[in-house]
Amino acid sequence: MSYSVGQVARFAGVTVRTLHHYDEIGLLCPSGRSHAGHRRYEDEDLERLQQILFYRELGFPLDQVTALLDDPDVDPREHLRRQHHLLTTRIAELQKMAEAVEHAMEAKKMGINLTPEERFEVFGEQDPAKYADEAEQRWGDTEAYKESQRRTARYTKADWQRIQDESKDWGTRYGALMADGEEPSGERAMAMAEEHRQHICRWFYECPYEIHQCIGDMYVEDERFKAFYDSTLPGMAEHLREAIRANAARQA
After folding, report:
1. In this structure, are strands 3-4 and 39-41 parallel, antiparallel, or unpaired?
2. Is the C-alpha dihedral spanning 250, 239, 164, 228 positive or negative?
């Protein structure tokens, strides 16, 4: 059975003009002609066209495609093996690109307008963009979340670095306070809890004592936050929660 140029064009998703061009340059010459002189393509022609389109999709120029397909030393199965390798490599590259785009979308959602390299420099492996969807689902309707979005959308790399540096310095000092045996209800611990609250107010959103206490509870109840604080000093999450509560009670 043979096929007209129009039929092949529809099968392959290419234009008739493309098939004419392939014929003119000797890349894909139809096996036969009709009585009227029109091109007729056989099954083996369609197989060659499939090979051509594979290589073209992978970015090979036409002259290289011709050389590859007309190499007498290459078995047809070798073309399939080569194309399979090229396609799997391309898929892996595209997957990486897709992940990078998704991460960029999440970062934009969090108001972090930094390049991937800058985010890694500032946050390391603790990139908050990983939790963008979860944060939006949990707090997207709150005024605090909206205010945080408005503020952070303006922040530069230097701003984010300052936020990180302040947080690390606070964590070091809080760990030292605990190592000294300070109770959560002690003056130093409550002062550090207040500093923690003011950091949120200064950089993200107004954080009244009621909300601050909810945040303290989350630090203990959410294993990810608990692990983060306890990595500085075991028990820090619980200690900080109690200091936040004591500070709120003192202010009340």
Report:
1. antiparallel
2. negative
Structure pTM? 0.51
Q: Which two tokens stand for residue 40?
A: 């007729």
Could you give the CA distance from residue 221 to residue 108 in angstroms, rounded to a whole number?
27
Query: HSE of 48 in the Cβ direction (CA atoms, 13 Å)?
Result: 20
* Alpha helix segments (H runs only) across 110-235: 116-123, 132-139, 143-152, 157-179, 187-203, 209-221, 223-230
Confirm if 207 and 214 have CB atoms less than 8 A apart.
Answer: no
Contact at 8 Å (CB) between 18 and 8?
A: no
Condensed to tens digits (0 to 9), the pLDDT of residues 43-97 reads 999 989 998 998 888 888 898 888 888 887 767 677 777 777 877 887 787 777 6
